[in-house]
Amino acid sequence: MTIFECKTCGHVEFNAAPEMCLVCRSPRTAFHENAAAIKQPADPASLTDGDKKHIPVIKVTTCGLIADCTDVHAIVGGIVHVMDVKHFIQYLDFYLDYKFISRIWLAPEACKPAASLHLAVKKGVITVVEHCNVHGNWMAEVTL
Ligand SMILES: [Fe+2]
Prior knowledge:
Order of helices and strands: EEEEHEEEEEEE
Helix content: under 10%
Distance between the termini: 19 Å
Bound molecules: fe (ii) ion
Low-confidence stretches: none
Radius of gyration: 15 Å
Oligomer: single chain
CATH architecture of the largest domain: Sandwich
Mean pLDDT: 97
CATH class of the largest domain: Mainly Beta
């Protein structure tokens, strides 16, 4: 899978650069291919505490608010990340079948490092990319 990063705002897209950045509206030319835009654990079979604090944990549940709705919840991470003013999760980006569908911004101190979406779809691959202001982007995904 190819990762494209917007040089203006850091937004990440998969497989192809979009016509325009869906976050900052920069043109396609602002995107460059950058496999390092999303961090990977050095050893996926043996995660460090640093890995566990950044790799999102995704849970899918049946919605209790809206009929015919699937909820996807993302928590950062298996060890809950801090939300201090100097070190916090700035946002979580959600993708459906590798197409960007939503960004949820988080404020330090006021927010927990988690976000949820109400989905109208029942099938597909949900990818979550979280952005730590100190440690960069980390991702996880789940198949509905
Ligand atoms: Fe961090």
